[in-house]
Design a protein that fits this description.
The complex is a heterodimer.
Chain A lengths: L2 H14 L12 E3 L9 E6 L2 H9 L4 E6 L16 H12 L3 E4 L2 H5 L4 H10 L5 E2 L2 E11 H12 L5 E3 L5 E7 L17 E4 L8 H10 L5 E4 L2 H16 L8 E3 L9
Helix pairs in contact in A: 5-8
Chain B lengths: L4 H4 L2 H9 L15 H11 L11 E4 L9 E6 L2 H9 L4 E6 L16 H12 L3 E4 L2 H5 L4 H9 L6 E2 L2 E11 H11 L7 E3 L5 E12 L1 H7 L5 E7 L4 H10 L5 E4 L2 H19 L5 E3 L12
Parallel strand pairs in B: 2-3, 2-11, 3-4, 8-9, 9-10
Antiparallel strand pairs in B: 1-4, 5-6, 6-8, 7-10
Helix pairs in contact in B: 2-7, 2-11, 7-11
The chains are: A alpha/beta, B alpha/beta.
Chain lengths: 261, 294
């Protein structure tokens, strides 16, 4: 099977699920040739250089990445053509006969959204999901500090950041993947905690949480980091793909947290 | 002195003045200034033409209010407003938004008790809030990188031709991150991309939004990027890929507000030069994040 044939099969399955392939989408081939024979597939949160190397070591020459390969949403490379890092990455991809495809917009269109499901599973929230809304979780009242420590242990987070009083009691949680951190507000519901990957650090939840605390209405936000938020969802995507591609090895390889100690 | 800092103050003096005490308790002169007059003076004195397409301007309050003093902050939270009011400063200059959106339009939060409480406090205390971000950051010399570098102890290490490049005392990425964390009183966890033993001699200082074009322009001459808010699908993986490619590069991400605060507070010095008759002070924000590893 070629990489293009794999993508065509995914598109067919999406159609069967009532999801039409969008004319305008970032879900395109980013590097390598679509005609390349696929030896194995690696799904991941991001096709970082490190991830591509690890995929190659495991003989997965087709990387299906949720986030960009070349450092901007549209993977525009015009200002990178002389950049030694970009050139080294492209050279590695070429020499190892690899292909990178982005699966972002259409992954989020699947129901339920695998990026939310995967994040919830990684954080240990799955049993607490609201049946009709996988973004919303109700847990036994737990201090923020305790919840954060538990989640940090589960995802082995090194660079998680938290806003909110560590002692505030968390009961109702709203979860968003990647940069889709839910906006905290009082309506339609005053969630205690929003969890996501990354968000603008001013002009939204930041000053809202500080102001809410100032009037005695504590709220909290956990920023996992983009990869600790969305890597796990690409495991769900791998599980969704596997039965569609008999005979093709499909493996989830997390990109991993980019931040060190 | 208003036009301009460059003509009357050297860069060194500019930053030293910023680092000094900003509270000046001079009795107000005979003539009283309204908020509208203060805004007019800022618009007339800033070194770049006033652009009507801007996030800057009056965000709350009545322009006819007589100004009792100016408080300068990186972000006008309700806590900052309370501290300003307690210090009898009713004109607040903020770099970042007041009302939960980049353009300060509260949108669906317009009926939110948090928004209403903030609005009530502003009305009750007769505060006036002025956002000063686009024009302050367009002014030259740019306060943001100069003041951040000064807060890091690097004012003597500046490249002569570039306010964002510094030749710092030799260190490693890990040691520098620990030093930065202490100097800036960061709670939220300084985030590092790269090997902690990376030798660091040259730094690119990029407070606020740290984007890839800025990094591409400066990284050939820097070992480390001192970032504010780098997007994790843009600047962060670009540095991570540099590391994988074997290039001796790294990044230290401080957080947006922490990285911007030194430069935002320098506006107090400039405002004092424009309005010497007013008491002006800066109000600091504590790093709003905390890290479970700290």
């Amino acid at each position: 099977m070629t990489a293009q044939e794999v993508v065509t099969r995914l598109q067919q399955r999406l159609t069967e699920e009532g999801i039409q392939w969008r004319a305008q989408t970032v879900d395109t081939f980013k590097a390598g040739s679509p005609d390349t024979e696929v030896r194995g597939i690696a799904t991941s949160g991001m096709a970082t250089f490190d991830l591509i190397r690890r995929a190659a070591e495991r003989y997965r020459n087709f990387v299906i990445s949720h986030e960009p390969t070349f450092y901007n949403h549209l993977d525009q490379t015009a200002n990178l053509t002389a950049d030694p890092t970009y050139l080294a990455k492209q050279q590695f991809i070429r020499e190892h006969n690899m292909v990178v495809f982005r699966f972002h917009d259409h992954a989020h269109m699947l129901r339920p959204d695998p990026l939310i499901i995967g994040s919830a599973r990684a954080l240990g929230l799955t049993p607490f999901a609201q049946p009709d809304n996988p973004r919303v979780y109700t847990i036994q009242p737990t201090p923020l500090r305790v919840l954060v420590a538990d989640m940090q242990r589960r995802v082995s987070g090194r660079a998680m950041r938290v806003m909110g009083d560590p002692e505030m009691v968390i009961r109702r949680i709203v979860l968003g993947p990647g940069s889709g951190v839910p906006a905290l507000a009082s309506t339609p519901e005053a969630f205690d905690l929003a969890i996501g990957g990354e968000t603008a650090e001013a002009g939204g939840n930041a000053e809202y949480i500080l102001d809410a605390a100032a009037i005695g209405q504590p709220r909290a936000m956990i920023l996992l980091g983009h990869m600790l938020s969305e890597d796990f969802g690409m495991q769900e995507v791998a599980n969704w793909m596997r039965p569609l591609l008999p005979g093709v090895d499909v493996e989830w390889i997390p990109a991993g947290e980019p931040f060190g100690a | 002195m208003s036009r301009m800092l460059t003509s009357r103050l050297s860069r060194r003096e500019f930053v030293v003045a910023a680092a000094g005490s900003l509270a000046v308790a001079r009795p107000s002169a005979a003539r009283q200034l309204t908020a509208g007059a203060v805004i007019e003076r800022i618009r007339a004195s800033v070194s770049v033409p006033w652009n009507e397409k801007t996030v800057d301007g009056l965000k709350a309050g009545d322009p006819s209010t007589v100004v009792t003093g100016i408080a300068v902050t990186v972000m006008a939270t309700l806590d900052v407003l309370r501290r300003a009011a307690a210090a009898k400063k009713n004109f607040i200059v903020t770099q970042e938004p007041v009302f939960y959106a980049p353009n300060d339009n509260p949108g669906p939060r317009e009926t939110d008790p948090v928004y209403l409480a903030k609005k009530d406090f502003i009305e009750k205390e007769r505060l006036v809030i002025f956002r000063f971000s686009d024009h302050w950051n367009a002014s030259r010399p740019q306060a943001a990188p100069l003041a951040l570098a000064d807060a890091l102890g690097w004012s003597k290490d500046r490249a002569t031709e570039n306010d964002r490049l510094y030749s710092v005392p030799p260190t490693t990425l890990g040691a520098l991150a620990a030093d930065v964390r202490t100097r800036l009183n960061i709670r939220g966890g300084v985030r590092i991309v790269g090997r902690s033993d990376l030798p660091v001699r040259n730094a690119y200082v990029s407070p606020g939004t740290t984007d890839v074009p800025g990094i591409l322009a400066h990284l050939p001459r820097a070992d480390v990027v001192i970032a504010g808010e780098p997007r994790e699908w843009e600047a962060v993986p670009y540095i991570a890929d540099n590391v994988t490619a074997g290039h001796a590069k790294g990044m230290i991400a401080l957080g947006r507000l922490v990285s911007e605060e030194p430069g935002a507070l320098v506006a107090a010095v400039w405002l004092k030069s424009v309005m010497p008759e007013l008491a002006i002070e800066s109000v600091r924000l504590t790093d709003p994040y905390w890290s479970p590893r700290a």
